[in-house]
Design goal:
423 residues, Cytochrome Bc1 Complex, Chain A, domain 1, single chain, five-stranded mixed sheet, 19% strand, alpha+beta
């Protein structure tokens, strides 16, 4: 795969992944702003703006925006993260210029009609209520809040009812004008479109994006001295548990060892947590681990759903499996299987134009360049068992762990003590 990058005079960046064997093209407008860029009083602004860009421009109403892409057999969507927001579309490659035009129209010309702002606020409140009614989602919202107290990373991306009520048209337009600017914008194109064609198309619209400076965010404070435990009472049939460990940023080389550690720990059905907790002991139906990295910090999380009477046994087994990483060497077989799984998943994912477009956007915004997948594979292959063990000793510790529970229980006696043994 050949990746090419073009930077324009106003700070706008274009990244392409030509895939001439594909019939489709995926186009993403990525902006380097998300939930962690928001002050307390504007919590939820990025996500609110994401919604509003679909509600109408000077040229198209909401229905016409959808029809402009769906009417040619494509699809249109968006998402908001902690550090970026993405608006994307996919269709046959001969519609590339049209997709770019629709996305640009949404991004630049959305009118933020006051009536639409009011209606969409109520829609987002319903979205918020839906998430809060899902214990599996709520337990992770609580985990973020407990891990990153008094910081934007600890606040919900959707905002709260109170913050949504504060977000009027004036606040939304001001946030967009300050942050949705050309130096913070990446246009990612993947599919049956060559780089020269993409450059010509973007040159025609580059000047329409707002000038400004790339936004900055508040650094996260990762100081902690002991396990943190939070419980939320909810009349659920099943206890939801989440554990989070503060780990390194995406710029730290230890992230490669952590990815292998996470795969062995709980990423799939052959992982240690799944085999021990579900297959051997029958304590859970679902248990999973994942690792995420930001510009300055990261999190290794474990989540599980279980009967509340099994909490003590479950925690003891999770702690035992976590301790093994620091006490025992990873076997060559386990390391090989983890490497093959990660690289196989990467190869399968990058077969699609959608995921190639996602790769471009995430790489440019996260690292300032496109790191080829082959480089990531090489780094994964080079990780030694001793590096996985060192990563476990660096991060799987009592002074880095937070636990949250959503259940009918008012407290979880003994949980903090069990986690304290992670030394």
């Amino acid at each position: 795969m050949r990746y090419e990058v073009q930077r324009f005079a106003n700070g706008l960046t274009l990244a392409t992944a030509p895939m001439p064997h594909m019939a489709s093209v995926s186009v993403g407008l990525w902006v380097a702003v998300g939930g962690r860029f928001e002050p307390t009083e504007l919590n939820g602004a990025s996500h609110f703006i994401e919604h509003m860009l679909f509600k109408g421009t000077a040229r198209r109403n909401a229905h016409e925006i959808s029809q402009a892409v769906e009417g040619i057999g494509g699809y249109l969507n968006a998402f908001t993260g902690e550090e970026n927001t993405c608006f994307y579309a996919k269709a046959r490659a001969d519609h590339f210029e049209h997709l770019l035009s629709v996305l640009t129209d949404m991004f630049v010309n959305s009118v933020f009609d006051p009536d639409e702002v009011h209606k969409e606020r109520e829609v987002i409140k319903e979205e918020l209520a839906m998430y809060l009614d899902q214990p599996q989602h709520l337990v992770h919202e609580l985990l973020n809040e407990a891990m990153w107290p008094d910081h934007p990373l600890g606040r919900p991306l959707t905002g709260t009812k109170a913050s949504l009520d504060r977000l009027q048209r004036k606040e939304l337009l001001g946030f967009r004008q300050r942050n949705f600017v050309a130096p913070a914008l990446v246009i990612a194109v993947a599919g049956n479109v060559d780089h020269a064609r993409a450059v010509r198309a973007v040159e025609r619209i580059a000047s329409t994006f707002l000038p400004g400076k790339r936004p900055h965010f508040l650094q996260a404070n990762s100081h902690q001295v002991r396990p943190v435990v939070r419980c939320a009472r909810k009349p659920t049939s099943q206890l939801q548990l989440a554990l989070g460990f503060r780990v390194c940023s995406r710029h730290d080389d230890r992230r490669f060892a952590l990815r292998l550690l996470n795969t062995i720990l709980g990423e799939n059905a052959s992982s240690r947590l799944f085999q021990v907790l579900r297959e051997e002991h029958g304590l859970v139906y679902c248990i999973h681990s994942s690792v995420s990295h930001y510009d300055d910090v990261g999190c290794l999380s474990i989540s599980a759903g279980l009967d509340s009477t099994h909490l003590d046994a479950t925690i003891k087994l999770i702690v035992r499996e976590l301790q093994r990483f620091g006490e025992e060497a990873i076997t060559p077989r386990d390391l090989r299987h983890a490497r093959d799984y990660l690289i196989g998943q990467m190869d399968l994912g990058l077969e699609s134009t959608d995921n190639q477009m996602m790769w471009l956007g995430e790489q440019i915004l996260g690292y300032g360049k496109v790191i080829p997948p082959e480089e990531i594979k090489r780094r994964i292959y080079e990780v030694r068992a001793s590096e996985v063990r060192k990563a476990a000793r660096d991060f799987i510790r009592a002074d880095r762990v937070t636990a949250t529970i959503v259940s009918p229980l008012s407290k979880a006696n003994g949980l903090a003590k069990s986690l304290q043994s992670l030394q």
